Amino acid sequence: MHPNQALIEQFYRSFQKRDAEGMVACYHPDVVFTDPAFGELRGAEARGMWRMLCERGKDLELEFSDVRADDSTGSAHWEARYTFSASGRKVHNVIDASFECRDGKITRHTDRFSFWRWSRMALGPAGLVLGWTPFLQNKVRTMAKKGLAEYMATHPEG
Question: Residue 130 has what pLDDT?
């Protein structure tokens, strides 16, 4: 197994256990994370996001598969089932991830998923009607970043 494949698998095994410190140990200090909900997060923000999600994801169930990697890139498929705290609605999110790796750490992590599909589950009727619009995407991203900033203000990075 390629070392970067093992690194990505370790990231997801840690996520399955909600072990945020195990996850962030896989990240380079200057990591760049991007997804449709949070947008772009760098360094401490990316690490803080995983800490927040692991702490708050009490009913999180995660499966991952198709992990591949070479000397500089990698990919994986993963699925998360959880209750979206803002609405209390059940979500089954299907995500494809891509990675860039250097010096045994993840330097770039991009998660791709259908925001409209996610918003229909997480937000119900509003997501169904508006989930495809930039307006709702921007509103969700603003709320996600605000929640992350509040979390990080009370949970300084260790």
Answer: 66
